[in-house]
Amino acid sequence: MTYQEAIEQIYRSTKKLKEKGKPAAYIPELSQIDPSKFGVHICPLKEPSFGIGDYQTRFSIQSIAKVFSLSLAYKLKGEKIWERVGVEPSGTKFNSLVQLESDNGIPRNPFINAGALVIADILVSGLKNPKAELLEFVKSMSPSDNISYSPVVEASEKSVGYRNVALCNFLKSLGNIENQPEEVLDFYFTLCSLETDCQTLSSLFLPLAYDGIAPHSNEKIIPNSYSKRINAIMQTCGFYDESGEFAFRVGLPGKSGVGGGIAAVHPDKYSIAVWSPGLNTKGNSYKGMKFLEEFTTLTELSIF
Ligand SMILES: NC(=O)CC[C@H](N)C(=O)O
């Protein structure tokens, strides 16, 4: 069975499922999204890419962008970043505050909000123009430049961002934020507002399936060892307190966002992006998880 045949078959059966989860309610702009949207796009390394459904509709990628900010911070500062953020699954919700105090302000990993705020701080310190440079870095990964920040989503999240404000101030008080919290939060909310479609998103993850190289340009985006380590962190921490479940059911390194997107990679084989805005209770796309579970089962192509 080809990738295309598998995707067509699973898309049809997953689309029919009555249960589809609920769009994120805590960010006003995201709560408006039509929950019946559903798109999938795959970029195999050695075969033509393929998309189905709403794969060319743009959506808010939210926390999936944390893979890009981590990649850039890692490239910029190397192994030093691990002095300020860990690589252990947190077992808590993405925006949890509880572990930070006992962990002395060192977030468990770069994908929970606390860890992503520390990574944001590293980029704010290390780059002249962090927002523009991050976007330029992201665009270098793909032949498509169909990705941009959404000022509307950013403003919407800022209007209710009390928890992230609390997290950033808490981190500052514990000595793990160098800049003013307002500046770090501004960069963080802009990062989370990145918008693209499944077609571009899957291509943006292809370097992580190809030893850190962007196949369209042959450019080394990040060293091979960084690419492997980022995949390891996606595998263990990419789905918050559902990371074990995702490894168990899907078996691919991946990252989700509360916009309902999931990007995942099979090293040396493919990258794939799925979008369905309805979330399960852990904040991960309900149909996105179902789709990927069926996909790796039918194709027998998980990393395990
Ligand atoms: N899991 C997510 O996608 C969360 C990202 C969102 N911008 C937040 O900080 O709450």
Automatic annotation (TrEMBL):
GO biological process assignments = glutamate biosynthetic process; L-glutamine catabolic process
Asked whether the keyword Lipoprotein is assigned, the reply is no
User: Entry's InterPro entries?
Assistant: Beta-lactam/transpept-like, Glutaminase
Catalyzed reactions per annotation: L-glutamine + H2O = L-glutamate + NH4(+)
Q: Which residues bind substrate?
A: S63, N113, E157, N164, Y188, Y240, V258
Cite the GO molecular-function annotations of the record.
glutaminase activity
Q: What do we know about how this protein assembles, alone or with others?
A: Homotetramer.
Name of this chain's protein = Glutaminase
Q: Which organism is it from?
A: Jiulongibacter sediminis
